[in-house]
Amino acid sequence: MMIRTNRVPSVSTSRHRLSADRRLSKIQRILWIAYNLSNNAFPRSHVDKRIEQRRFSLNEAQVTRLWNHISPSASPSRRLCDLFWMSGPWHALLRELGDVHALEIGCGSGVYGRLLATLLGNSLVRYTGIDIEPDTHWQEYSTDPRFAFAVERASGVATYLDGSNLVLTQSALEHFDEDLLYFVRMSEYVRRSEHPVLQIHLVPSAACITTFPWHGVREYTPRTLSKITRLFGAETQPYLFELGGSQCNRVHRQFISWPNLRIGADMRHSHGAAYQSALRTAILNDFEGIAMGSPAFYALVLASNFKEKLLAEQLP
What would the pLDDT profile of 227-255 be if each residue is shown by its tens digit? Predict the structure, then answer.
């Protein structure tokens, strides 16, 4: 008789298949926490030595310039992610990429396609967003011939890769049951490609088990992300950015996590001004390295087939 186990090391960075995207029983919720605590243990052991690890940081003037371009109700991690996207060294990257053919997996409404169009202008010649279910907002892009959407699982990504030179995910990898299998497809693609390919993946850190528990399948650490980077050969240079820290995590718990547990609603709208002030202070303190602790989120950047190595001053 075949005995099924929860361990899936060959296709996933996780040790289990429990996904909070599917309804979990009380016992399964406890198991989800236990499995992820185990998976997040020893976060800085056995890290791929090729990864260049950096702390994402902006000065106060940069934060001020970008602050009002982000939704006031954005969570701390989402605001950090948007700051990362909006402050990227796009001019330097475009020198490598040229015309951008972007593919986003887990695109949701397609909002990051719109952001790319703003950031890249005419350099964005194609954006394809795929998700496991359609979104009503897709029709808003119907007048722009650069935009296309499709219903597809991450396992079917190979169908849409040809010609893509920018592949991105935003808060999506944690929902992939078989995230390693997805990156096997990506590593095969960049190896047979002759052109530069840039991947940018923003993923939850281990701290997210307390800021928004029961979300997707997993969180990530430098150790588990190394399982991904080791799939790529010498053609790929991996970078890992820490976004935010303990101060941002504290604000998330104070205004979102704890109120949700107590009353089933958070305080971002009812205490909007206090939330904005506390979050801004927390982000600036984390950027200055004050009591950093665990990052709020990670940005994994994989630069493949680049003619020149990206320099520190070219990245956030």
Answer: 999 999 999 999 999 999 999 999 999 99
Beta-carbon neighbour count of residue 68 at 10 Å?
8
In sequence order, which ranges of the chain are alpha helices (DSSP H)? 26-39, 60-67, 76-86, 90-97, 111-120, 158-161, 179-192, 208-211, 222-229, 246-252, 258-263, 272-287
The domain ranges of the chain are 26-304
Which pLDDT does position 291 carry in this prediction? 61
Q: Which two tokens stand for residue 2?
A: 């075949």
Q: 308: which residues sit within 8 A by CB, 6+ positions away?
A: 96
* Fold of the 26-304 domain: Rossmann fold (3.40.50)
Alpha-carbon span 74 to 279, nearest angstrom = 10
Whole-number pLDDT of residue 314: 54
Residue ranges of the alpha helices (H) in 125-178? 158-161
